[in-house]
Amino acid sequence: MELLCVKVKKGRLNGAADTFNTYVVLKIQNLKSTTINRKGSEPCWEQDFMFEISDVEKGFMVELWKKGLIWDKLLGTLWIPLTTVEYATDEGSGAWWILHSEVIKNGSEICGTKTPTRHEILLDVYFAILNDLDRRSHYRRASLQGACHSPLDTCSSLSPMKSALSMQEKELRYHKVICVMTKWDSRLIRS
To answer: Who's near 56: CB < 8 A, 6+ residues apart?
Structure first.
């Protein structure tokens, strides 16, 4: 399993500010998460989402919706292949993405988007890498709960990894999961 972190930051929408009340929907491997609504042509959501990813060969959808009185209207969509997502230890500044109006399919599976709109969204998307301190902290907690025997056992059981991966790469993947889990736990404690 990989831990995908997505921060929906801001938007730049084409049109009069008073006509927009928008939210963003993320669709990843049968999961769906939604931001809160924001008004204006430059909405600021600043919301974090984390997803456990089982298949990094796929991708995920980002949709921008305009809240309506009876029905909501899709303003734009974006397909991000997971193979293009980089690994990081922490949040970055993100990148601006142009939203599109059409989805490209290969059979029944979405594989891209086309026909750009004039709407953009700022996203920070990365797979989390954990540092050694976070990994040890998580291992101690897991051991106390009887969840695992050793960091390497836990690492190798996280996902079916290709045999070409070195032990160091497996460790990096394990570190990434623990970092985000630790960050997530500390957010819950503060709430």
So the answer is: 2, 82, 83
48-99 tens-digit pLDDT: 999 999 888 999 999 999 999 999 999 999 999 999 999 998 889 999 999 9
Contact 61, 32 (CB under 8 A): no
Among 68, 29, 62, smallest CA distance to 45 is for 62
Reference 74, options 115, 114, 24; nearest CA is 24
Give which of 55, 56, 22, 24 is closest to 39, Cα–Cα. Answer: 22
